[in-house]
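hiii, so i know i said id send this last week but things got crazy w the move. better late than never?? heres the sequnce for the chain we talked about at the cafe, plus the structure i predicted for it. fair warning i was half asleep when i ran it
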Amino acid sequence: EALRFVGGHIFLGDNPTLADASALGGLEYIGDDLEIYRNPMLTSLPFASLVEGGGYLLVQDNETLTSLAGLSALTTLAEAPDINQNPLITDLTGLGGLTSFNGTLYITSNAALTSLSGLDNLQATSSLEVRENPLLTTLGLGALDAVTNSLLIRNNPMLSICELTALHDGLSQQPTTSDFTTGNLDDTPCM
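okay and structure toks below
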């Protein structure tokens, strides 16, 4: 029988030859954090049955990971995800079941990321930091209504300041700190 529940953390990291983690495919619940980092041969995530995480999700520095689609059943995370330094991920498809979380959602240094598509249902987060994604052209956060602490979107040279201004101004709950002009595409004046 497949492993379905883990009460604590899962660290899937520093595995230079791990190409297949499908043995974790039946996992439905993790009591704390799920960290997936520095797995240079891992091309996909095996967590298609994972519904709930009691901590945060870290997906970092996975050189051949092409998608987060293996997380598509995920509906609950206690803390915001941190998706960084995954050079082949182009969007965040697989995170569509998430609607809100505490903490800072980090999307940083993903070289091929063009869109935050996949976070289409996100309605609220404490903070959002999106930085240093050189090909990012659109956020696609149409449902986002509240960012309570900080909104920091910097150094995404293809991302329109006009789109960021519209996102910021459309929030019903405004962040206490904002910076969305530094290093982004200056296409002002906005129409």
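btw The longest strand covers residues 100-108. thought thatd interest u
miss u guys!!
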